[in-house]
Structures are given as C-alpha cells and as structure tokens.
C-alpha cells in the first residue's frame, strides 16, 4: 500500500514564476491537508480539502496561493508569482474517510521549494 | 485557539540515557495530542497519539508519553536512547471537528545522540 506521494521532491523557481506542487493521498483517503515548514520552524497548517471542496483555508496566504483536490487526480497547491519568502518545505498529509480529530494524518516526503 | 509549546529546540543525550522531550499545550476544549518524528529530508512519521482513552500512551520505537491535564502537558520519553533516535520531534494538537482536524504543531525539538 503506497504512502502519500508528493512530486516533485525538489523544485527551483525564479522570482515571478509559478510553482505547482502535487500530492496523491494514500489509497482510500479522501481528506488532504497542506502544511508549510519554513527553515528552522515547525509546520504551519495551510489548507484542508476533501474531494472537490475546500473545507478550511484559514492558513493560506490571501494572495498568490490556491489549492484544489479534483474528483480525479492529485491535489495541487499552486503558488503564483513566487517570491524568495516562499522558499520552504511543503508537506501534504492525508487521513481516512472519517475525518475526525483523532484520525492519524499520514505525511508525504514533502516538496522543497527554492526561489532564486 | 489552541497552541503547543516545546521547551528546548535542541536536546543532546548520550546513547543509553533517558530521552525526555517536553510538550505543553493550550486548549479551551479537550485536546487530541500527537508526537511525530522527522528524519532529515523526510516527511513526518507518527510516534504515538492521545485520544482520551488511556493517559499513558505507548508508541513505536520504545517511545511513550503521558497526558497530564492538570499540567497541560504531554511529554515524550524513551528509557534508553539509540543512535537511530537522532531526529527532530514535533508535538501537535488537534481539537475539534469544526476545526477540520488540522494539526497545530510546536516548534520542534532536535535530538542529538552522542555515542
């Protein structure tokens, strides 16, 4: 049973370009979370999605960031017009159908974004 | 809103010695608490979680944690450190259905194990 898959593992972008990060949840999981880890900091929640719905985006920056989880295919975190401050590790996690607070979230290996 | 504080961003222990990582939480409702471990350039792996059943929780790799409501703490321990325990450890809290199960993490504690 494959774990949470994220790609690419490393992404380099120049300022002003777009970054697209992909996340495939574990089989049977329909809840996806995105977290950001800035250097020397803990993880910060960004967004929580279920299939075709954004449930909680309270941690998303108001501009340039968007997320989706379509009916088919992976979840996508999109960052437009990247700036150096967007350089971080972005982690995706998934949890089972029930979506209750006690569910374990299973994390992917992360995408490390570097903005030049 | 909930929060998590991990005392000590770095901890150094000798191989075979006790590992103690401190975690204190703040929450207005009963919390669910988690400890995750992160090895270099990898994602997070769950060590253990408290879900309001037993207050002493045993996890993988010999780790355990005790939930103490009166102290709002969930400290992680391991009786005897192994070199493979060198990693970063994160305490996290999840509080309510309405919050959508998002995890609030502490700042992390990096563990160094000396031979």
Describe this protein's structure.
The complex is a heterodimer of chains A (116) and B (115). Chain A contains no helices and eleven strands. Chain A has 116 residues and is an all-beta fold. In chain A, the strands form two sheets. In chain A, strands 2, 4, 5, 6, 9, 10 and 11 form a seven-stranded mixed beta sheet that branches. In chain A, strands 1-3-8-7 form a four-stranded antiparallel beta sheet, with no helix packed on it. In chain A, a hairpin with a 5-residue loop joins strand 4 (31-37) and strand 5. Chain A is globular, with a radius of gyration of 13 Å. The termini of chain A are far apart. Chain B has 115 residues and is an all-beta fold. Helix content of chain B is 0%, strand content 54%. Chain B is built from no helices and eleven strands. Chain B has strands at 3-7, 10-14, 19-26, 32-38, 44-50, 56-58, 64-68, 73-78, 87-94, 104-105, 109-114. In chain B, the strands form two sheets. In chain B, strands 2, 4, 5, 9, 10 and 11 form a six-stranded mixed beta sheet that branches. Chain B is globular, with a radius of gyration of 14 Å. Chain B starts with a strand and ends with a strand. The mean pLDDT of chain B is 91. The chains are: A mainly beta (116), B mainly beta (115). The interface between A and B is medium-sized, with 31 and 26 residues.
